[in-house]
């Protein structure tokens, strides 16, 4: 039925099976759609957000997907600016993953702000002293860049390629892709950093506050570093999942190994800085606020174990696996390391958002708890559904992995 | 916000913040414009029969880019 749209020489599952595969993701989208309508019609009282938890599940999801989507800008930087040619075998997939992550995050923010029709206020009536304004500018501008990077991939569709104008336009876009990649690096660097910087300047909340390096708190650099360390691992996970589901080899091992090695060394560098920062915070910022480290964990379900889990289990263990050639060549260990690395970044963002807001800042205040409503879960999980649908459709109809045909030649024959 | 908006203030904060945004948007817009103009020129040249169209490598030869 859709054979004319499938790239030349590539085999794909039948339309019926593909439709069945999309059903759970369409279900998630429907759940998200109902939740979004309720939030837009009835207001944010559909959520368990409050004046205490103004940042909640949606912002955790936002920060996580934006960090995991960093594989797009960092792989683009390595490919087009540094000249790591091997990564061209995976760059298309990273662009699509980045586009999904950023468009999902922006869509979720559209609901989160409560009145999306006034979303443009942040651009027109900008508060130039706010880190969140910078984040908004950079995220939306970078989404536009990702859209432009996605365009030549889209125009390579078998049917669209028959239109000569599209083919030439895609080709011309591709020739100046380094310009877009460099702009993307600039925009990504600053919004990843400002997302972290925003927590570092919460001086009234000693759990998040850090000292400044020039005008930026240390969390500015840690957020950039953690995102570029985890992003490539998320790309590897998505690629390996696609390989497992399609039962095909999509990317050469050398490319995956290179990406894993880079991610491992970046994670090692990040962990060194994170441990120094944490020790400095425990012995500097926290006593300076008249507290001790354990004061943060007197009540509630969260504890120092979360920090240990983030740094030791989801930090040091994946570093050891990823920087050891023999370990990362083991398929199971590589997947484990990538999963732990990505879990680490989820925990990091969770600590800075939910744990940070749950901890009382006044001696007479109590510990606050928060559980998301089904509407909040619906909108957050809709991003997962949307991502799975767009990535599946891109894989089916676009030459997402340029070496797929060559790597599966023996099987095709 | 532009320098013509009523909230605009002529100081370094506004210059840096909005300047970098417009710089990034300008680079992206110029990139798109260049690709579009090159495409139009290519198509126009072909119509006149002035130049032999350059072969467009397919995505399957991605590594040749």
Q: How much helix, percentage-wise, in residues of chain B?
A: 55-70%
**Major sheet characteristics of chain B:** none
Q: Which residues of chain A sit in consecutive blocks of at least 5 with pLDDT less than 50?
A: none
Count of helix runs of chain A:
16
Mean pLDDT of chain B: 80
Oligomer: heterodimer
Largest interface, C-beta within 8 A:
A-B, 42 and 30 residues
Q: Given the structure, what is the number of helices of chain B?
A: 1
Following the backbone from N to C, one meets helices and strands of chain B in this order, namely H
Low-confidence stretches of chain B: 56-65
Mass-distribution shape of chain A: globular
Share of helix of chain A, binned = 55-70%
Topology overview:
The complex is a heterodimer of chains A (413) and B (65).
Chain A: H1 15-42, H2 57-68, H3 70-82, H4 91-112, H5 121-124, H6 131-154, H7 164-175, H8 177-200, E1 212-213, E2 216-217, H9 218-246, H10 253-288, H11 304-323, H12 325-328, H13 331-358, H14 374-397, H15 404-407, H16 409-412
Antiparallel strand pairs in A: 1-2
Helix pairs in contact in A: 1-14, 2-4, 2-13, 3-4, 3-8, 3-9, 4-6, 4-14, 6-7, 6-8, 8-9, 9-10, 9-13, 10-11, 11-13
Chain B: H1 12-48
Walk me through the structure:
The complex is a heterodimer of chains A (413) and B (65). Chain A is globular, with a radius of gyration of 22 Å. A two-stranded antiparallel sheet of chain A has the order 1-2. Chain A has one domain: Formate dehydrogenase/DMSO reductase fold, CATH 1.20.1630.10. In chain A, helix 8 crosses helix 9. In chain A, 70% of the residues lie in helices and 1% in strands. In chain A, strand 1 and strand 2 form a beta hairpin. With 413 residues, chain A is mainly alpha-helical. Chain B has a domain of 33 residues. The two termini of chain B are 39 Å apart. The relative contact order of chain B is 0.07. The C terminus of chain B is likely disordered. The chains are: A mainly alpha (413), B mainly alpha (65). Chains A and B meet through helix 6, helix 7 and helix 8 of A and helix 1 of B.
């Amino acid at each position: 039925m859709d054979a004319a749209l499938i790239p030349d020489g590539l085999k794909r599952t039948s339309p019926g099976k593909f439709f069945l595969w999309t059903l759970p993701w369409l279900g998630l989208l429907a759940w998200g759609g109902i939740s979004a309508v309720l939030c837009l019609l009835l207001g944010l009282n559909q959520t368990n957000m409050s004046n205490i938890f103004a940042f909640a599940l949606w912002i955790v999801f936002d920060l996580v997907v934006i960090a995991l989507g960093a594989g797009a800008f960092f792989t683009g930087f390595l490919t087009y600016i540094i000249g790591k040619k091997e990564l061209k075998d995976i760059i298309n997939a990273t662009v699509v993953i980045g586009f999904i992550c950023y468009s999902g995050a922006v869509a979720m923010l559209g609901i989160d702000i409560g009145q999306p029709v006034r979303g443009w206020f942040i651009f027109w009536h900008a508060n130039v002293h706010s880190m969140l304004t910078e984040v908004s500018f950079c995220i939306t501008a970078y989404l536009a860049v990702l859209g432009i990077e996605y365009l030549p991939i889209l125009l390579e569709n078998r049917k669209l390629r028959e239109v000569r104008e599209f083919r030439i336009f895609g080709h011309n876009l591709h020739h100046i892709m380094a310009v877009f990649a460099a702009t993307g690096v600039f925009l990504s660097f600053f919004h990843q950093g400002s997302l972290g910087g925003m927590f570092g300047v919460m001086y009234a909340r000693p759990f998040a506050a850090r000292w400044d390096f020039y005008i930026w708190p240390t969390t500015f650099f840690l957020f950039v570093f953690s995102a570029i360390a985890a992003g490539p691992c998320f790309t590897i996970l998505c690629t390996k999942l696609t390989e497992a589901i399609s039962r095909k080899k999509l990317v050469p091992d050398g490319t995956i190994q290179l990406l894993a090695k880079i991610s491992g060394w970046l994670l090692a560098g990040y962990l060194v800085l994170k441990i120094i920062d944490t020790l400095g915070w425990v012995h500097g910022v926290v006593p300076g606020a008249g507290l001790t480290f354990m004061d943060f964990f007197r009540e509630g379900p969260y504890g120092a174990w979360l920090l240990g889990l983030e740094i030791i289990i989801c930090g040091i263990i994946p570093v050891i696996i990823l920087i050891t050639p023999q370990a990362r060549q083991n398929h199971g260990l590589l997947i484990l390391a990538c999963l732990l690395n990505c879990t680490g970044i989820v925990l990091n963002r969770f600590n800075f958002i939910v744990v940070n807001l749950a901890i009382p800042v006044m001696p007479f205040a109590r510990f606050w708890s928060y559980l998301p409503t089904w509407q909040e879960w619906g909108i957050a999980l809709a991003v997962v559904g949307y991502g799975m649908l767009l990535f599946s459709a891109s894989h089916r109809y676009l030459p997402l992995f340029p070496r797929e045909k060559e790597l599966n030649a023996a099987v095709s024959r | 916000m532009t320098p013509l908006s009523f909230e605009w203030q002529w100081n370094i904060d506004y210059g840096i913040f909005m300047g970098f945004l417009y710089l990034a948007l300008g680079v992206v817009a110029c990139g798109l414009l260049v690709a579009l103009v090159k495409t139009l020129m290519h198509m126009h040249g072909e119509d006149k029969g002035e130049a032999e169209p350059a072969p467009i490598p397919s995505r399957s030869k991605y590594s040749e880019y």
